[in-house]
Amino acid sequence: MTMSPQLSSDPSDFYSQSFSKGARENTLILNMGPQHPSTHGVLRVIVELDGEYIVRAEPVLGYIHRMHEFMGQKKTYTQYLPNMGRVDYLHATAWNWAYVGAVEQLAGIEVPERAEYIRVLTCEINRICSHLVWWGAYLLDLGAFTPILYAFEDREFLLDILQRVTGSRLTYCYFRFGGVYADVDDKFIDDTRTFIQRFRKRLKMYEALVTKNFILRKRCEDIGVLSVQTARKYGCTGPVIRGSGVPYDVRRAVPYSVYPELDFEIPTFSEGDAMARYMVRLKEMEQSLRIMEQVMDRMPDGDIQGKTPKTLKPPKGETYFAVEGARGKIGVHLVSDGSATPYRVKLRAPGYSNLSCFAELSKGTLIADAVSILGSLDLVIPEIDR
Amino acid sequence: MTSIKNALAGLWSLVVGMGITGKYFTAPLVTVFYPRQEAENIETYRGHVELVGKEDEAGVPLCIACGQCARQCPSQCITVSAKVAPADPAESKDGKPAKPKRLKTPGVFQLDYNLCSLCGQCVQVCPVDSLRYSNNVYFAVFTRQETNIDLLERLERQAKEGK
Fold first, then answer.
1. Do A78 and B121 touch (CB under 8 A)?
2. pLDDT at residue A100 is higher than 80
3. What residues in A contact B45, CB-CB < 8 Å?
């Protein structure tokens, strides 16, 4: 049985090429999604089941493809900025940063130190927001309803804090070439400090309520064990590869901004199962709190906006800039032909690589465990499809 | 023996969880009952853009109708055109009728909020700071046409209401 879909004049879609002919005796082909509650958006997974066990699974993408990369070629450098908040709406500031950083590298724009610190601060706040949404939604997948309400209660504080400077609550368009849109004020700093104290207690509560919970451990431990080789093969990054024991973090591997001056750890767990990925994210939230504290202590006074030319025309050439997002390495490959619009913008979405290992991970597992694996990869479908 | 221990520890973890749930069950409410109550965080919200009036003449915008905001906008949702004064026959030369004069004040300033992504580039690019974010949180309409806001009319209305 061959299952590689080939380019041909056959008008049938992926499903009929790979799966409708492929069902064997005693197996059942089931369509999970695109409108399935556990797929967090419009992800379609086709699974072949033998009883309740998965024989093979295949994610089908493209249901929320919005041509972000092509839009980059049609708009000027500044006009493309609001797109970046919408690629991955949960960690919008990291995408802001990846694009803005790439343009700054290409055009040689200097960023004032205060702006760098503000960037780190908002990026880390946003990372906690993103992890909280993941935490709530993942537990919702596993059948626990209460945690998402606690997570969203805490997230509400952070959204209020971010709203002070960005003006919006989800799709931020906050970073500008050479700086940020608005300066942080004293209330912002005070609120953040109050939140850090509060959240440390809440994290302990999360641990007692959920992490140590017997039922959760049964649903996560030894489920979807991802070996280092597989993770590397598929290009997994972020908490997914750190859950397999590889301490790869762009903030340390390819340091950018003021991260080298800050003291924080990269949590890694070597088990490689869903529980390890869960633990990495919880520990990351603690580290983000540490970073936020240091940044607020060290934040210098000064400008928040560096000098930028009025009409931005970076010189001919190409550049690649990567930042660490909540889901992994976010990269922007930018090619300029010297005009006011980019020649090509390639966006590297971490979720895309993280999802590709799902087919291998879910082989031979129960369908309920596959839902757990899918959730533990922390997928944001709009980011994967771009 | 270890399995019994594990089972007991597991059961205890459920008791701890129930304890936390019980504690929060008696805790005060954190949500608000909209529309009877309003959330407290709306003053920092940045809604659609609006025009800023002159200090001495609140109903007239600072805008000079240069159109930079319309060109900068990623979604082309702003329409600006300058007010045109009718031609003055006294200025006609050599028998040719005088050209209508383009004034430095907008005659049309429309914002199609349907397309706007609230990026704020129009606010930043404006040379006379005639644009700012409004605080219009409760913006709901019945038809799509209503999202096309006439900002000049909005400014006049605000000036009348004395805001």
1. yes
2. yes
3. 163, 167-168
pTM: predicted TM-score of the whole model, two decimal places: 0.86
The whole-angstrom distance between A213's CA and the closest CA on chain B is 5
Domain boundaries, chain B: 48-85+99-163
Minimum-distance CB partner of B119 among A82, A160, A209: A82
Q: Which residue has the tokens 């205890």?
A: B12
Q: What is the CATH number of domain A68-380?
A: 1.10.645.10
pLDDT-derived band at A125 (thresholds 50, 70, 90) equals very high
Nearest-CB residue to B17 (from A167, A168, A213) = A213
Cα of B46 to nearest chain A Cα, Å = 5
Taking an 8 Å cut-off on Cβ atoms, the answer to whether B120 and A173 are in contact is yes
**Searching chain A, which residue's CA lies closest to the CA of residue B120?**
A173
User: Tokens standing for A308?
Assistant: 């930028």
Least CB–CB distance from B20: residue in A173, A208, A214: A208
Predicted pLDDT of residue A1: 43
Which CATH number is B48-85+99-163 given? 3.30.70.3270
Tell me which DSSP letter residue A50 carries: E
Is the CB of B121 inside 8 Å of chain A's CB atoms? yes
Task: Name the residue with tokens 């050599």.
Answer: B94
Bridge-based pairing of strands A44-50 and A28-32 is antiparallel
Checking if the pLDDT of A103 tops 60, the result is: yes
pLDDT at A257 > cutoff 70: yes
Nearest-CA distance from B102 to chain A in Å? 26
Give domain limits for chain A. 68-380
ipTM: 0.79
Report the pLDDT value the prediction gives residue A63, as an integer from 0 to 100.
84
**What pLDDT is attached to residue A2?**
47
Sequence-ordered list of residues with C-beta below 8 angstroms from that of A103, at least 6 positions apart, any chain: A77, A109, A177, A312, A314, A334
Question: How close is the nearest chain B Cα to the Cα of A366, in Å?
Answer: 23
Q: What are the pLDDT digits (tens) for B43-89?
A: 888 888 888 888 777 778 888 888 888 888 888 888 888 888 777 76
Which has the closest alpha carbon to A295: A257, A238, A322?
Answer: A257
d(CA B65, CA B151): 13
